[in-house]
Amino acid sequence: MESLKAIFWKPDPAVQLRKCNALLRKNARELDRHMQSLRLLETKTKKMILDTSNSKSNSSAQQTRILARELVRIRRQSSRLATSKAQLQSVGMQVNEAFSVRKIEGSIKASTSVMKDVNSLVRLPELTGTMRELSMELVRAGIIEEMIADSLPDDALEEDDEEVETEVGKILGEIMGGKLAQTGTVPSQLEKEEEVEEGSEMALEDMRERLEALKS
C-alpha cells in the first residue's frame, strides 16, 4: 500500500519531517556516544601518563611522551566531534525551517548551507552510516541535492608535527605540574630513539598495544 501511495501521491511533508527529525536525533546520540568514549579514554590516558612518569624504567620518559601525543589526538578528535555536533544542530534548525516555509509557500528550495554541513558530517567516520540515511531523506524532501564523495580528504588526516609537539609540552606541564621542572624536560621521541635498548623497545610496543586496547 505504501509503495502504491509513493507512486500516485507525493510524500507527506509531516511524515518526512518526523523521519528527518528522528534521524537527526539518532545521529546526535551517535555523536554523544563517541564523545563519552573519548572522555573516558582521555581520563585513562592521563592516568597512564602519571603512572608511566613515576616508573623507574629507562624508557619511561619516551613512553610518557608517546602517551602525551596520544592524548593530543584524543583531544583533537573530541574537538572535531564537538564541532560536528554544532553542525548537526544547525542542520536540524535549517531542516525544520525549510519545512515551515514549505507549509506556508507550498514549495521548498535546496539549501547550499545544509548541503555543506551534511556533506561534512557524512564524511565523518563516526557518522558515515547514520548520516547517509539522513542525507538520502533530505534529498527526497528536496532540501539538498545528491551527495558526493563520502570519505575524508587525505589532508584532513595529516598532523603538523611541530604543533603536536607544542601541545605535548603543554599536556605534560598540565598533568605533571612541577615534576618536569625537577626532573628536566622529557626528551622527544627522536632524541631518545638511538638510545633505546631492546628491552625498552618491547616496553614501548606493549604501551602501544595497551592504547589500542583502550580505544577498542
TrEMBL record:
Pfam families: Snf7. It comes from the Eukaryota. It comes from Tuber magnatum. Residues 184-204 are annotated as: Disordered. Gene3D superfamilies: 6.10.140.1230. GO terms for biological process: vacuolar transport. This is Snf7-domain-containing protein. InterPro entries: Snf7_fam (IPR005024). Residues 192-204 have a biased composition (Acidic residues).
